[in-house]
Specification:
Helix content is 49%, strand content 19%. It is an alpha/beta fold. Bound molecules: ligand C2E and magnesium ion (3 copies). The site of one magnesium ion has 2 residues, from β6. It comes from Gluconacetobacter johannae.
Length: 291
């Protein structure tokens, strides 16, 4: 009897595995098609300068738009894209699309810096410098309007590959942000060795502002670190006014989160700016001709 039960359970386990496996290959196939057919869209979330209340830039966030209109969030397909290598053509697409959009906005009198997330696995086998400079060249975007977001892990994994590439990009005018700061490796050494423009405090700390003195202490330490190293700091994941007030009391100068605006299509971003819900900085006055 025990033997039968065992076999039964084993057979069941086997079937479940097979089902999981075929679901994974189905997703992989669908994702491969999606890359081929460019079934992706970028949504843009505003980043706010807290002193002026103006939009200093936007973060581009990828979504998979199924032909039936269903929108799939990156948490559900990025891990597979990274495993299968589909992340490479996907990144080529997202870099080019974000640069094209930012160049278009600039033409339309809406100059906005765009931040693109780059997966750390790209540095294992690919020339990130080439991927980025190709997108810039193809779209004609002023590199000063492009920012790249990398996680600590991405940088620490391959410092000898990442460092010269990022330095070359920074020299062109591209800026580099460390995303999800505070959750990766604890080594802070790289902050002084790499051309880092901005630290983005992970939303996990922001979420706990009202409940964890540990998180409050870490946020204060990151703000002090940025100030002392001359690196800007932005807080992400702000959903409520009390979180914003506390961050302002700590002299945090930049913020992003649903409180200010969710990631939206380029059309909706444009509409939010046109109706004044989001405000662009006043244009810097042109310098008078030195006659
Ligand atoms: P991330 O770069 O840390 O992006 C922030 C995520 O938090 C986004 O999720 C955003 O929609 C969400 N978020 C923003 N404000 C709030 C808030 O106030 N509350 C809450 N609860 N969430 C907020 P999303 O769009 O699902 O992206 C998840 C992650 O996927 C991103 O995390 C990024 O690591 C990655 N990702 C997104 N687009 C791309 C891309 O084009 N390429 C690569 N390699 N990764 C991407
Ligand atoms: Mg990001
Ligand atoms: Mg983040
Ligand atoms: Mg993240």
């Amino acid at each position: 009897k025990a033997k039968n039960e065992g076999r039964c359970r084993y057979a069941f386990f086997d079937a479940a595995m097979e089902q999981a496996f075929s679901a994974a290959t189905e997703l992989e196939q669908a994702l491969g098609n999606a890359v081929g057919n460019e079934e992706f869209v970028l949504h843009y979330q505003p980043e706010i300068d807290l002193r002026s209340g103006t939009v200093i830039g936007v973060e581009a966030l990828i979504r998979w738009m199924k032909p039936d209109g269903e929108l799939i969030y990156p948490g559900r397909f990025l891990p597979l894209a990274e495993e299968t290598g589909l992340i490479v053509p996907m990144t080529v697409w997202s870099l080019r699309e974000a640069c094209r959009q930012a160049a278009q906005w600039k033409c339309d009198g809406m100059p906005l810096r765009v931040a693109v997330n780059l997966s750390g696995v790209l540095f294992r086998q690919h020339d990130v410098y080439q991927l980025v400079t190709d997108a810039i060249a193809e779209t004609g975007l002023d590199p000063a309007f492009l920012e790249l977001e990398l996680t600590e892990t991405a940088l620490i994994e391959n410092p000898e590959v990442a460092s010269p590439q990022l330095t070359a990009l920074q020299q062109m005018g591209v800026s580099i942000t460390i995303d999800d700061f505070g959750t990766g490796y604890a080594s802070l050494n790289y902050l002084t060795k790499l051309p880092i423009r901005r630290l983005k405090i992970d939303s996990a700390f922001i979420r706990e502002i009202d409940s964890s003195s540990g998180s409050r202490t870490i946020i204060k330490a990151i703000l002090a670190l940025g100030e002392n190293l001359g690196i800007k700091v932005i807080a992400e994941g702000i959903e409520r006014e009390d979180q914003l007030r506390w961050l302002e009391d700590q002299n945090c100068q930049e913020a992003q989160g649903f409180y200010f605006g969710r990631p939206v299509s380029p059309e909706r971003l444009r509409a939010a700016i046109d109706c004044g819900a989001l405000v662009l900085p006043a244009p810097t006055p042109a310098l008078p001709d030195a006659a």
